[in-house]
Amino acid sequence: MAPRNLTQVTEFILTGVSDHPDLQIPLFFVFLLIYGITMAGNLGIITLTSVDSQLQTPMYFFLRHLAIINLGDSTVIAPKMLINFLVKRKTTSYYECATQLGGFLVFIVAEVFTLAVMAYDRYVAICNPLLYMAVVSPQICILLVSLTYLYSFSTALVVSSCIFSLSYCSSNVINHFFCDIVPLLTLSCSDTYLPETIVFISAATNLVLSLIIVLMSYFNIILSILRMRSSEGRKKAFSTCASHMMAVTVFYGTLLFMYLQPQTNYSLDTDKIASVFYTLVIPMLNPMIYSLRNKDVKAALQRFLANSCCSFKSM
């Protein structure tokens, strides 16, 4: 009986965003700029919401953790992506690939539920303002964030374990710029029914549950705003959740575009474009959305810069 010619894959080759050689350097500088802005913006939000006394509220506590998640999400993807623009052989080891997938899942699931928690926070603030500090107390805030991280880590562990329990023994070329689930499943020479089922159930549960929380929160927020007699009160109430509404629309719009498109129209190239958006572009946009439309954040930035200048002059 002839021996079977099966060799277990020990490394993967990433095709990247584009395989055109002339585009590698321009794309490197484009994504380096995006990552630089992402780092600066999210670190700025983390710093301001940590040191400014007027931003020590539940809303900015959750915003700080959203910035941490955005920073983690882009950092899991961007450095390896940038290196691959500069090298001819875009390889990643088996364990490095598994770690990247796990990290990506931790942060993307955490972002989904952090946005839902932030919607609930706005609901309580607008619809039940007298009970706000009791319902969204510091202890409850820590509990909600801790549960979000714990659940996202558990989900990432289960899903990535399922993906990398499969055998990869033929092609090792991943048609993507990072180790994502669908491209990895297409490479496996094992039966992928169980992992695909687990991935589908997990993704559908996370998306539907978080979307229900967001939609129910904003449905009640809109009803509460419409009941207000003062136009100034309506304007103030709307302004407190306008930034979050914009961030939610961009993020969930991208995810729904990915998951609700007809299977006949699905392509890995479309998946790449959507992945660039929610792994790199949205983490860059979120600090801008929350700072440019938020008077408290802009005032905190001015105070921080003023204090920094005073400290520098006194040296």
Automatic annotation (TrEMBL):
Keyword presence, Transmembrane: yes
Record-level GO cellular component terms: plasma membrane
Keyword entries, A-Z: Cell membrane, G-protein coupled receptor, Glycoprotein, Membrane, Olfaction, Receptor, Sensory transduction, Transducer, Transmembrane, Transmembrane helix
One MF annotation (Gene Ontology) recorded for this entry: G protein-coupled receptor activity
Chloroplast as UniProt keyword: no
Similarity section: Belongs to the G-protein coupled receptor 1 family.
Transmembrane segments: 25-48, 60-78, 98-118, 130-151, 198-226, 238-261, 273-292
Pfam families: 7tm_4
InterPro entries tied to this protein: GPCR_Rhodpsn, GPCR_Rhodpsn_7TM, Olfact_rcpt
Membrane topology: Multi-pass membrane protein
Compartment list: Cell membrane
Domain of life: Eukaryota
UniProt domain G-protein coupled receptors family 1 profile: residue ranges: 41-290
Function: Putative odorant or sperm cell receptor.
Protein name per UniProt: Olfactory receptor
